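Study this protein:
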Amino acid sequence: MIAAALTGGIASGKSVVLEVADSFSRVKTVQADELAKEIYDPDNPCFQEVLDLFSSRILRDDGSVDLKKVSEKVFSNPALLEELENISHPYVKGRLEGIIECLGNDNIEMALVEIPLLFQSSSAGSVIFDKVILVEASEEERLRRLAERDGMSPKEARKRIKLQSLPENAREKSDYVISAEGTIEETRSEARSLLKEMLN
């Protein structure tokens, strides 16, 4: 089985590649961000650390975590974001290693794991992957998508892009690069061709 990482900046087109991958019966997709959200479950072993970091002000009346409040706090405070990542990244690393091991025992030929901050994470990024796929789009295009998709102002969108910026050597660290600058169908076509190549 191939364990492949899918990475790229915010609004670069990763979700389109995941959508294509999900159409392949031999490919199983995993999203690291979804695994990271598990730490906000009261039954999760990391939950108390999260509460200690943010206090109960991030809780709704029903006791669940208001992820919008968490997002607002960390994206306006890089130091707080780093502390949160010190909790979430080791947890995600452990979960990914377990998932990849389980999939390797099934009839799955590729585990495609979306990790937006693969190169920035010293922990989650240290999971052993056979291949790395980088999805790229220009900053101008990503700004347009963030405004259209999330209703962000240009200032907020630029701030979010900067916080999740890729290292300059991201291309060198990747085995494959998909350009998502064009239409969605063009990106789908490129992703489909690449996945077929990797599976053959």
